[in-house]
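Before relying on records like the one below, remember that each one covers exactly one chain. Contacts with other chains, cofactors or solvent are not represented anywhere in the record.
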Amino acid sequence: MLNFSMLEFFNPTMRKWLGVALAVIVADHLSKFWVSSTLDFQQAVPVLPFFSLVLVHNTGAAFSFLAHAGGWQRWFFIAVGIIATLIITRLLQRHAHQPRLAFALALLLGGALGNVIDRLRFDAVVDFLDFHLAGYHWPAFNVADSAITVGVALMLLHQFRFGKESP
């Protein structure tokens, strides 16, 4: 049940974690703005032998899952992102005093909202980080995707390390 107490929600600890989420959103959108104003669509700029910047728009999810589904997926992924935001916010509220877990949740929250904002504004997510090596090519991603990945990894590490005796 999503039962938010406003006094508990805006306590100093919770504000700190919401600040982390906001920092992810700001970094995500500043980087997307810079890339969108610097590169043409699908233009690739080599930075290192294994890394390029490339401006692409992903209408799907990870690895362009459902990218060519006809348009309905936009609203589906927005709904999933909003539901995830509500769940993550509630979890963050419950675990705000557990720094490792709260940091992971804040990264997830910022990443999820960063990509939802893109879907609402552009009907797609702006991706630009392009890694490739020895003929293998990883799909382009962005700062929000990176925050989500790091957040999930930290949550898994936390769970494996502390399990049910979570501090």
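The chain is about 60% helix and 15% strand.
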